[in-house]
Amino acid sequence: MHFTFKYAPLALALLFPVGVPSALADDKAAAAAVTSEDGKYFDAEGSPTFKIAEDGTVDWYTYSGYRRFNSECFVCHGADGAGSSFAPVLADSLKVLTYGEFLQIVAEGRKNLAAGKESVMPSFGDNKNVYCYLDDIYIYLRARAVGDLPRGRPAKKEEKPQAAKDHETSCMGG
């Protein structure tokens, strides 16, 4: 199942149930890239994933996800998804969230009440700087979650594929 965000992810998010626990935790084997399409990699289930070369070069989408995450999401979730006093460590959350659950939570938001403490993830379904790059952010956090990508800006990256340029132009309305 390959998703490209030609439409607002809010509509896509409705296809995926939230609150249903993932059957398996994500790990290096599950996250392994088995196919690629236009510079984007996918795992055996068809979910977007990362590709890191032996020399540390990351695929474009992992690099873009790093940039987008650290410009939009780090305020609450800490640099590199390391968490904060009021938002979870996303590098841990992605070990148990499916791709669909991730899309739905980011697009629609979520409210949790645990141990008398309320936490709220606001909806980003109308923020183009987030929803146009949801796959990128997911891919980056997935690489962090399974331990294949250290903290900090990736030193080397693949060139931006034409498909990423086309998607960005289409999604951002350019």
Automatic annotation (TrEMBL):
InterPro entries noted in UniProt: C-typ_cyt_methanol_metab-rel (IPR022411), Cyt_c-like_dom (IPR009056), Cyt_c-like_dom_sf (IPR036909)
Transcription regulation among keywords: no
Bias-annotated ranges (Basic and acidic residues): 155-174
Highest taxon listed in the record's lineage: Bacteria
Residues of the signal peptide: 1-25
Protein name: Methanol metabolism-related c-type cytochrome
GO terms for MF: electron transfer activity; heme binding; metal ion binding
Keyword annotations from UniProtKB, A to Z: Heme, Iron, Metal-binding, Signal
Ranges where the record places region Disordered: 151-174
Record domain Cytochrome c: where: 60-145
